[in-house]
């Protein structure tokens, strides 16, 4: 991604209004909502991609006072007009998300326009205000998908969709009824904002539906797929509506480059920021389902879909109703380092082509860590009597954390009952056929058991949430086969210690290992002797362990 322009304006370092940016050419960047989806990515991008010697000072307001933005240099109280005005007038770059709070963007513009640079000649700062908006300003340009049997409507739809809207068509945009105020602020920024062209430059960036870095609009689909709560991801039928999109990191890069380079040849000082792909809603849902589940989607009618989204309190439903053919003019993209073939793109080829990267970002930003546990050694399945009966440790642990318990007997039954399928590219055998050739009560060969477990571990539930293994693998050979661990020779470097060897001179004699119980009486006696210790562990140790695992698994 572009590193950005060289730093800055003069001015004495940021004391009062009009003091300018930090001393030494540092760029001071004000982001109104530091803790918003775009604010988080933009702020971290600005810090991380600063060129050597290009200091960037980040400040702004929080939507939630409890939010953590450790990368920000200072936090401004949005309810303190004096502090807000001071921060705006001492910043070089100011970014507002118009779509989330158009009124605050208007207030900021008024402050910047009313500032009298003539009375503050020491302030040589050239300020840049960028309003980031969304495509709901263009929602009225959406073309309704016609019924397949209406030939005339289909022909008209194809003709309308053949023309891709660009930033050059900004005068033709028609907003969603709920977003007229957003358009009014966009017009105010680009028409009134550039009155003081020598000191203040203003831009509007229309963003495609944003994705990546933990998700925003598509978070519900990711969450449902991750948790497995919807085996078929719901979409509004038929799902063939085109949704212009952009990776939020690409959007952040474009915003920053506009702020640093102040291009003069963007149409009406505006940019339409979308990637190069043409994804439909069905393409998006199928890609998420394929990456995290089994690739299934469910087409819902509008009433059913709205009911589901209302129940799930989905705030971004209007974005998935868009049906727009929009294209970024790469002659303008080239100006800021985001041309058609530019290496600056994080996901220029689109959502579907980069789904693996997007899923990995979702895991990282949401701090999703699968729970993977192995319960081994007697007793694991049945631990000790409780008031409710026996405690099945592995099973109850799996239920507590909502992860898959891999029961070997049930696993064999599951795969034995599956229909035959073609040769599998990964494991190279038809497991169902192989298992059916073995008698019901006969021992299953280790290699087939390992393959069954491997297949289970590769399922979405085990990959996403985790799993509990119980008494398997039960040998070094099984362990190496299951997890493809390179074998370590016992007599090699770092090999296993010979427990039968005599201790070295000066070492204490090794304690004798307690023999394992062989009879039912011995096992019962061991059970009774160990009950106080098990009870102590359950009451005092396991709760602490559970809380720790819950924190890790958040």
Helix content: 25-40%
Instruction: List the total number of helices.
Output: 18
Secondary structure tally: strands: 16
Structural class, please?
A: alpha/beta
- C-alpha geometry: elongated
**Kindly state the mean pLDDT as a whole number?**
80
Distance between the termini: 31 Å
What proportion of the residues form beta strands (DSSP E)? 5-15%
Over the alpha carbons, how many angstroms does the gyration radius reach? 31 Å
* Strand order across the largest sheet: 3-2-1-4-5-6-10
Oligomer: single chain
Spans of at least 5 consecutive residues with low confidence: 1-24, 487-497
Descriptive keywords:
554 residues, alpha/beta, seven-stranded parallel sheet, three-stranded parallel sheet, 36% helix, disordered N terminus
Structure characterization notes:
The chain is α/β, with parallel strands linked by helices and 554 residues long. The protein contains 18 helices and 16 strands. Helix 3 links the parallel strand 4 and strand 5 (127-134). It is elongated and about 95 Å long. Mean pLDDT is 80; it is low at 1-24 and 487-497.
């Amino acid at each position: 991604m572009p590193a950005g322009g060289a730093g800055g304006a003069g001015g004495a370092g940021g004391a009062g209004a009009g003091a300018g940016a930090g001393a030494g050419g540092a760029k001071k960047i004000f982001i109104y909502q530091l803790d918003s989806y775009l604010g988080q990515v933009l702020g971290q991008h600005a810090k991380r991609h600063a060129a050597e010697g290009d200091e960037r000072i980040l400040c702004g307001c929080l939507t939630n006072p409890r939010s953590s933005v450790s990368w920000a240099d200072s936090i401004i109280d949005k309810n303190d007009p004096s502090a807000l005005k001071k921060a705006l007038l001492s910043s070089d770059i100011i970014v507002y998300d118009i779509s989330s709070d158009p009124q605050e963007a208007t207030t900021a513009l008024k402050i910047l326009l009313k500032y009298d640079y003539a009375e503050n000649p020491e302030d040589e700062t050239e300020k840049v205000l960028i309003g980031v908006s969304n495509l709901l300003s263009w929602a009225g340009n959406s073309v309704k998908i016609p019924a397949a049997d209406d030939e005339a409507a289909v022909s008209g739809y194809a003709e309308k969709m053949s023309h891709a809207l660009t930033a050059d068509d900004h005068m033709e945009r028609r907003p969603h009824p709920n977003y007229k105020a957003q358009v009014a602020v966009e017009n105010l920024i680009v028409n009134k904002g550039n009155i003081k062209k020598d000191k203040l430059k203003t831009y509007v960036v229309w963003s495609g539906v944003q994705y990546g870095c933990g998700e925003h609009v598509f978070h519900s689909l990711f969450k449902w797929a991750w948790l497995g709560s919807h085996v078929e991801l719901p979409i509004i039928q038929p799902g063939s509506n085109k949704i212009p999109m952009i990776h939020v990191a690409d959007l952040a890069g474009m915003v920053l480059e506009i702020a640093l380079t102040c291009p003069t040849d963007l149409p009406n000082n505006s940019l339409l920021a979308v990637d190069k792909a043409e994804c439909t809603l069905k393409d998006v849902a199928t890609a998420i389902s394929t990456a995290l589940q089994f690739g299934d989607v469910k087409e819902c009618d509008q009433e059913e879909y709205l009911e589901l989204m209302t129940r799930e309190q989905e705030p971004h439903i209007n974005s998935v109703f868009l049906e727009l053919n929009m294209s970024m003019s790469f002659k303008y993209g080239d100006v800021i380092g985001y041309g058609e073939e530019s290496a600056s793109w994080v996901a220029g080829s689109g959502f579907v082509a980069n789904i693996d990267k997007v899923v990995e970002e979702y895991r990282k930003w949401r701090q999703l860590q699968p729970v993977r546990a192995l319960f081994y050694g007697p007793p694991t399945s049945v631990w000790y009597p409780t008031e409710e009966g026996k405690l099945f440790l592995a099973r109850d642990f799996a239920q507590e954390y909502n992860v898959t318990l891999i029961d070997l007997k049930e696993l064999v039954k599951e795969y034995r009952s599956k229909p035959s399928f073609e040769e599998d590219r990964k494991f190279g055998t038809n497991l169902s056929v192989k298992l059916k050739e073995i008698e019901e009560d006969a021992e299953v060969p280790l290699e087939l058991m390992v393959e069954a477990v491997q297949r289970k571990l590769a399922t979405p539930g085990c990959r996403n949430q985790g799993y509990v293994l119980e008494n398997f693998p039960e040998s070094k050979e099984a362990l190496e086969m299951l997890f493809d661990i390179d074998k370590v020779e016992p007599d090699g470097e770092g090999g296993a210690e010979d427990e039968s060897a005599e201790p070295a001179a000066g070492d204490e004699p090794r304690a004798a290992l307690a023999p394992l119980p062989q009879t039912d009486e011995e096992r019962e006696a061991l059970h009774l002797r160990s009950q106080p210790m098990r009870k102590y562990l359950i009451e005092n140790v396991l709760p602490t362990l559970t809380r720790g695992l819950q924190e890790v698994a958040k």
